[in-house]
Each structure stands twice: as C-alpha cells, then as structure tokens.
Write a structure and sequence with these properties.
This protein is α/β, with parallel strands linked by helices. The protein has a single domain (about 5-150), classed as Collagenase (Catalytic Domain) (3-Layer(aba) Sandwich). It is built from six helices and four strands; from the N terminus they run αβαβαββααα. Helix 2 links the parallel strand 1 (about 15-20) and strand 2.
Length: about 150
C-alpha cells in the first residue's frame, strides 16, 4: 500500500518496528515496549507478523490523512491494517510527534505518557476495537489506561 512498507518490513527480525521520519524523540526501553505490544496482540489472538510504528510530522500525517482517508485535518494517529487474514497482523501505524507533544502540553501530561497512550491506542485498534461511538471511546480509553498502568508499573 505504501512505498515505505516493503522497505521497512525487511529491516528488522522483530515483528514490531519503530521508524522515525520526524525529529527524534526519546523512546526508552524499545525492546521492552516491543515485547509488551507483541504480548498484547497475542492476548487478543493475533500473531504480529509486521507492525511498523512510523513517527512523523503533522505535515506528513496530514498528507496521508488526505490521500487515503479523505480527511483534511490534523490527527495524532492513523492505523492501517494491511493483514491478509484475521490472525496474522501486518500494519502501519503513523503517529504525529507534533500532535503528541501538543496534546501532552494541552492535557498537562508528560510527552512520554501521551506517546505511549497513542502507541497503545493504535495497537488496540488492531485488536479489533473501534472508537467512533461514545461508548467505544470510553472502552478504548479504559484499555489505554490499563495498558499504561501495566506497562509503567
């Protein structure tokens, strides 16, 4: 689907990968995070084959949002499930570092906490959860909070 997907998926032996197209941010304990995400998928009966988290700018993600989703607004995350079947996951998750930083500032949270919330948010989508309706948003927020607690405690 995307030109980067073919290249990115061959660069690592881990099913979970992180790529930085924007200013680098500090993402500590990457191996711990990769294992945590992999285990999250397994708990939901999914086998992560290739999950690429691409950290980018507002401008980059806006272009993707316009081109593929026909949305003309900034967002913090766009998740593309590229799987061939329900069990083996292939996906690209684009995260705007600009939005993460702005949301953290606006909400009075650390950038690290907000970044992990967004990472987990994309992962939850790939596990089959949606956030279009109010009750779905509440369920996802609760799951994000549980994952943040599990990961950081």
């Amino acid at each position: 689907m995307f030109t980067n997907f073919e290249i990115m998926s061959k660069q690592s032996h881990s099913p979970v990968n992180f790529f930085f197209l924007a200013d680098r941010i500090t993402l500590k304990d990457r191996n711990k995070l990769k294992i945590f995400i992999r285990d999250l998928f397994k708990k939901h009966g999914k086998k992560p084959e290739t999950i690429n988290y691409i950290f980018c700018s507002d401008k980059y993600l806006l272009a993707i949002n316009k081109k593929y989703l026909k949305h003309n607004y900034y967002t913090d995350i766009v998740t593309f499930d590229l799987s061939d079947n329900e069990k083996e996951l292939k996906a690209e998750i684009y995260i705007s570092i600009d939005r993460v930083k702005e949301n953290a500032r606006r909400l009075g949270l650390s950038i690290n906490s907000e970044l992990h919330r967004v990472i987990f948010h994309g992962s939850i989508h790939l596990c089959g959860y949606n956030d279009k309706k109010r009750n779905e948003k509440e369920i996802m927020r609760e799951m994000e909070n549980q994952l943040l607690d599990q990961y950081f405690n």
